[in-house]
From TrEMBL:
Keywords: DNA-binding, Transcription, Transcription regulation. Residues 4-61 form the HTH lysR-type domain. This is LysR family transcriptional regulator. GO terms for cellular component: protein-DNA complex. Pfam families: HTH_1, LysR_substrate. It comes from the Bacteria. Belongs to the LysR transcriptional regulatory family.
């Protein structure tokens, strides 16, 4: 029977995800020569070529992709086994490491932790790490966190065998206007009514893409007057009359006295929030309880619209 070495399979999977031997070595805290040697040994054990030269780099062969398709089921089963063993050794409490984007920490993670602490049974020890989507999934893949919260537009596809995704909520986007804006009190405000305004949003990343996509869906390309990523900075610029901005309702706690928040009932822009775990880890008692608390928190969120 062919010998399947889980450690070497993880190296092969990391090479697929990272793209180069050097990046794989850095991710796994190995030397490039050690990575190459381990993969050479794995190829000998399996009796197939796993890598082929492509210029100065290497790429995975079809046989390597076939091996990894089956290996993903092994990894998922090992995650389930580790989750069950952790639950057995630590009881249902355990520890769950969560990576979440900035507005999700106070809006979802903190209320979920409070909900767990208020229960009759001891809740898991939740460790929080603020991270945007790309970093959160790198951390999840590397085993440095157990659960990631991100926007659906920047999450892996549901077909990715490494992860299990759980939709949480759809967060409406309201428009922030200076209090003296001519349309601050206008009835039935639409995004198209603000096509000639100066806009404030990040220079790159998820929020830039969300803002431009919402405006383009309304028929115009927003003129970016100022670039800012944090809600404190964005709303301060709006308050000063320097432009308008889309703001998620989850970030409503940052509101300022001289900023008017208007609901866009006609356009109804949304950003969708999802939770993700490594496939198989959702069966662990501690992770399952944190997921349940996050789901309950999302359902009770008074100013958001739930996903179907």
């Amino acid at each position: 029977m062919t010998e399947w070495d889980v450690k070497k399979l993880r190296i092969l999977r990391t090479l697929r995800d990272r793209g180069t031997v050097t990046a794989t070595a850095e991710a796994l805290l190995m030397t490039p020569s050690a990575v190459s040697q381990q993969l050479t040994n794995l190829a000998k054990q399996l009796g197939v070529d796993l890598l082929e030269a492509q210029g100065r780099r290497v790429r995975l062969t079809d046989a390597a992709h076939l091996v990894l398709r089956h290996a993903e089921a092994v990894f998922a089963q090992l995650e389930r086994a580790e989750a069950e063993l952790t639950g057995y050794l630590r009881g249902e409490a355990g520890e769950v490491r969560v990576a979440a984007f900035s507005t999700a920490v106070p809006a979802l993670v903190v209320p979920a932790v409070r909900l767990l602490r208020a229960g009759e049974r001891p809740g898991p020890d939740v460790r929080v790490r603020e991270a945007e989507a790309a970093q959160a999934y790198d951390l999840l893949t590397a085993g440095e966190v157990d659960l990631a919260l991100s926007l659906a537009a920047h999450a892996p596809t549901a077909r990715d065998p490494r992860f299990r995704l759980f939709p949480l909520l759809a967060d409406p986007l309201d428009v922030a206007l200076p209090a003296d804006h001519p349309l601050a009190g206008a009835p039935a405000l639409r995004l198209a009514d603000l096509a000639a305004d100066r806009w404030i949003f990040g220079g790159s990343g998820p929020w830039s893409e969300i803002t431009t996509a919402a405006c383009e869906a309304a028929g115009f390309v927003p003129e970016q007057a100022h670039s800012a990523a944090g809600w404190t900075a964005i709303l301060a610029l709006v308050e000063a009359g320097m432009g308008v901005a889309l703001v998620p309702r989850m970030a409503a706690r940052e509101r300022r006295e001289d900023v008017v928040m208007r609901v866009l009932e006609t356009d109804r822009p949304r950003r969708h929030v999802v939770a993700a775990v490594r496939h198989g880890a959702e069966s662990g008692a501690a992770v399952a309880r944190v997921l349940a608390a996050l789901t309950e928190t999302a359902r009770s969120f008074p100013e958001t619209v739930q996903q179907n």
